[in-house]
Amino acid sequence: MFHIYCPHCEEYREEEEFHPKGEAHLARPEDPDNCTDEEWGDYLFFRKNPRGVHHELWVHAAGCRKFFNVTRDTQSYRIYETYKIGEQPSKAITA
Amino acid sequence: MSEVPDSVAVIDQIPQQGEPLTPRTPLHHTARAGGAGQLHYREHDLTGLLVLRGNAADKAFAEAVKATFGCPLAKTLSFVMAQEVSLLWLSPDEWWVLCPPDQAYALEVQLRERYSGHFALANNTGGMTRIQLSGPQAVQVLKKSIPYDVHDAHFPVGKVVATVFGKTQAVVRRLGQNDWEILARRSFADYIWRWVEDAASEYQR
């Protein structure tokens, strides 16, 4: 079980209150009408699947129902930090 | 003072004409009370519920809320009470206002008159029910029901937490040392009531 710190509730909660929502920091192409199919396809369908440090989007579904980001190691399951939407990970964590 | 904008549908849910309605709670088909000795549980009478969303950093909004409900915007994971009104923190921009059902409409109109900025207020009266647990063993029922730590140091009086309850969700708040309240959606009220009855059975002997 993960013990996840919700940056909105400002405390640790059990994993069953949360849902993972995939990769974080997906930037929508600035001008969808004029971007290439490849750029649009990458944005819509292609996701990273790293072994090691990964930035993920989670939602506190049973709690405050807010989205936030989690920096997590997909191999060791260690959670390095959680931070609000719109913020950048505070430190460069490498595997 | 500003007028209530026409674009907002503000409706008194209690009809002013015709036969007076008999309000029924979501658990009207159950005993609505149970327990013995160290543990008692009951469904609270029908409560008015206003779902309030807005920006807590907006001073005008915060002042209008305080003037209307008599209590300030609750801080993270806490609730405040003023006479018959409770204001519960649900998320950084969402609060629930519990009030007598016949005051919900009046309070809604008052807040809209005091503040016309960016906010949302929805009258969800009847959408939730309140189940109150009391007695020294009440905490044992919660320990079986929610994954949240209910130790005194972690869940003091005055705290409110939205969490998983059984296989559904509920908002749990601590009203006193041995007094707890579960707020559940009406569609899950029956499930939670039966869950509480079952969980409580071993402490009533």
UniProtKB/TrEMBL annotation, chain A:
UniProt-listed InterPro entries: SoxD, SoxD_sf
Any single GO BP term: tetrahydrofolate metabolic process
Coiled-coil stretches: none
Molecular function in Gene Ontology: sarcosine oxidase activity
One Pfam family linked to the record: SoxD
Protein name (database record): Sarcosine oxidase subunit delta family protein
Automatic annotation (TrEMBL), chain B:
Pfam families: SoxG
Protein name (database record): Sarcosine oxidase subunit gamma
Taxonomic path: Bacteria, Pseudomonadati, Pseudomonadota, Gammaproteobacteria, Oceanospirillales
